[in-house]
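Field reference: sequence -> structure
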Amino acid sequence: MAKRKAPAKAGPVGVPKKKGNARTAANTKRLKEQFCAELRKIGVMRYACQQVNVGKSTVARWRAADPAFEAAVLEALDDAVEGMEQEAFRRAVIGTEKPVTVAGQREVIREHSDTLLIFLLKANRPEKYRDRYDVRHTGANGGPIQTEDVTDDELRVARMSEMLQRVQARKDAGK
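Structure field:
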């Protein structure tokens, strides 16, 4: 019979074993800074996570546990949105150059984005440019809607009567 090796001795009770890829505090700090820098450039959490090679759940844990990191993430997102707004303004108002061929001649025209301009106006002056909907429900001749107090039993009887009328109409149509 072969002898079994004695199992490796476990560490003290309650102390987790160190993992080979455990992050140090300095490494975590560096990753948080890199993440915020990428988020500031990209503006999308998932892509910033991919650039730094950190999971979204890890970032969520960091945000929940570290108020300073949460503030840095919100600031980075705000900076990213400001960059997007600047680019939208550039495309809408200043425009972009587009090469075209006219009568065999190569020319450059400047295109503007009406759609981006509309979004910028709605975002910055919603009281003036937002979509407005005015939905009103009225009764006969524009008056108030008339309602009746009906008991549940009366409502059931009315529904049953309507169903019976439909069934009878189908029978009569089939004759």
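Note: Residues 25-80 form one domain.
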